[in-house]
Design brief:
The complex is a heterodimer. By secondary structure, chain A is α+β, with helices and mostly antiparallel strands. Chain A has helices at 17-33, 40-47, 52-58, 69-85, 99-113, 144-154, 156-163; strands spanning 88-93, 118-123, 130-135, 138-143. In chain A, a hairpin with a 2-residue loop joins strand 3 (130-135) and strand 4 (138-143). Chain B has 4 helices and no strands.
């Protein structure tokens, strides 16, 4: 997800599991190319359209000079450890999550869970609408399908009368 | 010219004499041999002629004997055949007579038995008929009552059977109705789901979806407010498992 909004750490830019995979891949590539004297490091960062620019904002201004390599290396290692430790919350949606939905999810995690989480989002049109959360095996169904089923159970007799 | 000695002349003379003697001997021997050969040939022809006559006689005698045997055999054969035919004719006549006699006896016996059986049956029928008539006359009221009772019984049985069938049918219908209601009951969710899916699938736009997700998050918030520690702890456990 790209945003111009200024954030505290690079972790603030991560919302989904996909973001985690993407940034970890980028950080690994940076580590591999950190001590190379050619333009490899610059190319690696430049090739990641999503997190390349964001990463440079958090690197020292002279990140391209060889003297900064060790500092950047230890910094990246710390970031990677933090990213790996972020917990996951599984979410099922009826459609692909857009920026607004991702923002809502992020706010929910920050305000209600009080800590950083990443959302693993699966799409299942059968739930019709709403969302299902699976946290540590707890199934929290807030989908439209569940509501319809509940309504159907409550109004079963009336529906049977209508059908029959 | 060579002059020969006396001895030589003598020797030649003796030689010539011996040669002449040998010539005479050979000539005489030749004539004797020819004569002997001629006699031998004559004798051989005589013997051959005699042997031929003997052969003819033997053949003729054998032919005569064979003719005699054949004639005798034919005669015996004709006699035997004639005797055999006569014997067969005699036996056939006897057998025919015996069969005819036996058949007549059997037919007569059968006719007698049939007549006897017929008479018995007629008597039996007459007796039975009379007995039945007497029985009916004597037990008319009783029979009437039995028949009435049986009719009533049959009617009752029929009614019971009809009622049983009716009950079974009613029960079956009730079961069928219940099964159908159950089936509808089970399918109603699926029907509703399909209807909703069609209706909402077409009707829900992006804003609706966003609103529904927001609504879901609001509900989740309410839940987390009721047990925020549990929700956070659950998220924490997820994080720990990821870090591992």
């Amino acid at each position: 997800m790209q945003t111009d909004k200024a954030k505290g750490t690079i972790l603030d830019y991560l919302i989904t599991e996909e973001d985690r995979r993407d940034i970890l891949s980028l950080l690994s590539d940076v580590e591999e190319n950190l001590f190379k004297t050619d333009d490899s490091l610059k190319n690696v960062i430049g090739s990641n359209a999503r997190f390349g620019r964001i990463l440079t904002e958090f690197l020292p201004p002279d990140w391209q000079s060889p003297e900064s390599s060790e500092t950047i290396g230890s910094m990246i290692m710390g970031i990677k450890n933090e990213i790996v430790a972020i917990p996951t919350v599984n979410v099922v949606l009826a459609i692909m999550a857009n920026e607004k939905i991702l923002s809502m999810l992020e706010s929910f995690a920050r305000d209600e869970l009080g800590k950083k989480v990443l959302f693993k989002i699966d799409v299942n049109p059968d739930i019709i609408g709403g969302a299902i959360f699976i946290i540590d095996g707890n199934y929290l169904d807030f989908s439209l399908l569940r509501k319809l089923n509940e309504a159907a159970i409550q109004k079963r007799d009336q529906i049977n009368a209508l059908i029959g | 010219m060579v002059e020969l000695s006396y001895t030589t002349y003598i020797t030649l003379f003796i030689g010539i004499v011996i040669l002449c003697g040998l010539l005479v001997y050979v000539t005489i021997s030749y004539f004797i041999s020819m004569k002997s050969l001629r006699e031998t040939n004559k004798r051989r022809e005589e013997l051959l002629s005699r042997a031929q006559n003997d052969y003819q006689e033997i053949i003729s005698a054998a032919q005569k004997k064979a003719d005699g045997i054949i004639m005798q055999a034919t005669k015996i054969n004709q006699e035997t055949e004639s005797n055999l035919n006569q014997a067969v004719i005699n036996i056939s006549e006897k057998e025919e007579e015996a069969i005819r006699t036996k058949s007549e006896q059997v037919i007569n016996n059968f006719e007698n038995k049939l007549r006897e059986l017929n008479d018995n049956n007629i008597n039996l029928f007459k007796t039975t008929s009379d007995d039945f008539g007497k029985f009916v006359n004597n037990h008319f009221d009783e029979v009437k009552k039995i028949l009435q009772d049986q009719t009533m019984e049959s009617k009752k049985l029929a009614e019971e059977k009809i009622q049983g069938e009716y009950d079974a049918l009613e029960k079956e219908l009730a079961g069928y109705k219940e099964a159908q209601i159950k089936k509808i009951d089970e399918n109603v969710y699926q029907i509703l789901f399909n209807i909703s899916k069609i209706a909402f699938g077409r009707g829900l736009n992006l804003e609706n979806h966003e609103a529904l997700v927001n609504e879901a998050l609001e509900e989740a918030k309410k839940l987390s407010n009721s047990s925020p520690v549990a929700m956070a702890a659950a998220a924490e456990r997820e994080g720990a498992s990821n870090a591992n």
